[in-house]
Specification:
Blueprint (H helix, E strand, L loop, with lengths): L1 H11 L8 E6 L4 E7 L5 E8 L21 E11 L3 E6 L4 H10 L11 E3 L8 E2 L2 H14 L4 E6 L20 H12 L5
Parallel strand pairs: 1-8, 6-7
Antiparallel strand pairs: 1-2, 2-3, 4-5, 4-8, 5-6
Length: about 190
């Protein structure tokens, strides 16, 4: 696995093993970007991973079974082998923002999905699916950096990095504008 990562990491000028790992996910483009810090702690784009499966559309995950890939900034709370998906990194969804919006809407917490992963395979029920080969690379780097130093940013689509503006979503909840403001600030961390 390291042999596949060596050249793109050298070209990006990042150190190995990494001290931290970021994955920027763009739902509309069905693409994820791997970012690692250089020796001065500046984030560098290393490579892209194409989705091997996708589900849902623009907008947040509202309830279990809606097939939506959530949008937001998530940590990794567990990592492991998966009988169905090769390897999986389980995200801390719902995060603090998701739980606050769940309460604001008066939705029953038992209907909120907690099974959101970045994983291999080729089927999605609301997860970020990047295929077996790609998940091996991301999993290795996340393992070396530690799950506490691994962050997954999930955006509705890619946007101008210096002046990010996301597309309006007429069918999304009223609080979606606030989520877009949070994501606009988060995407600035990925300036090229």
């Amino acid at each position: 696995i390291y042999a596949r990562l060596k050249k793109p990491m050298q070209q990006a000028g990042v150190t190995y093993p990494p001290k931290a790992v970021r994955l920027a996910v763009f739902k509309a483009e069905r693409r994820a970007e791997l970012w690692l810090p250089d020796s001065q702690g500046r984030w560098k784009h290393v490579k892209d991973y194409a989705f091997t499966a996708s589900s849902g559309k623009q907008g947040p995950k509202i309830y279990y079974g809606d097939l939506q890939i959530p949008e937001g900034v998530y940590g990794v709370d567990s990592m492991g082998l998966s009988k169905e998906y090769h390897l999986a990194l389980h995200l801390d969804h719902p995060n603090e923002f998701d739980r606050a919006m769940l309460e604001l809407d008066g939705r029953d917490p038992q209907f909120m999905s907690t099974g959101i992963n970045v994983h291999g395979g080729a089927i999605s029920y609301g997860c970020v699916v990047i295929g077996n080969r790609n998940i091996e690379e991301f999993f290795l780097l996340a393992y070396l950096a530690g799950k506490e130093n691994t962050t997954v940013y999930i955006f509705p689509h890619d946007t101008e990095r210096l002046n990010p503006q996301f597309k309006q979503c007429d069918y999304c909840p009223v609080w979606y504008g606030e989520l877009q403001r949070l994501l606009s600030r988060a995407i600035l961390e990925f300036k090229r």
